[in-house]
Amino acid sequence: MLVERLMHLEPPKVIGYVLDGIATSSGASADKFEYYSTYDTDFGEVGDAFLALCEEDKECNDRFSPKGLQDALQDLILQVDNDSNSTNYKANGIIYERDQYWNKAATIPKGVSVLLLQGKLDARTAPKYAEYLLEVLDGREKELITFEYAIHGIVRTTTLNEGDYTNATCGMMLLASYVSNGGDLKRLDKSCVDKMPAFNLTSSYDTRYQYLNTDDAYDGAFTGEEESSSSHQ
Question: Which pTM does this prediction carry?
């Protein structure tokens, strides 16, 4: 959001902008603008997209057949929320004063480019806003690179090997290529995008013990104690 606002000021020494996880769509119509009041709805859309991927994973699909993961989760939520004692109350909204740049589409200055990075499973900044911003940015030197199964923070999370955070991510490679080529989108090396690992719902051993305390995410017994991966290597 701050980067998009900076574009309006057109600092003369800046030749390129990179937005990672798009949290703004200034210049778009009201129905395409990101509001905190619609955050739950946006989060839900990404959540539904993730749950739908269960059908593409044999083990997950078999586990929740024929009802499906989405309906099974909805039933669980209804059970947990049944007879809730939570309190609802009214509160005064937080309203900020608007300046001349509010919801105004940014113009890409001559000799400047904009690179947008977005994950389709990013629930914090829903992917639809990246598409909206790309559409309203005034200028030709702009490009959106979308990762099918990435979450929030492309530079940090797009590992080429699952769980390998010691080597450069694809997002890092894209950023490095963009900077080294002076923001020239035509020379941007995007080869790593095609090398991203396929979607995989199989959890690692460390993940199963860290979050579930079991060796089997579906039928494993709860161990009742924390265990380190080092003791099972």
Answer: 0.85
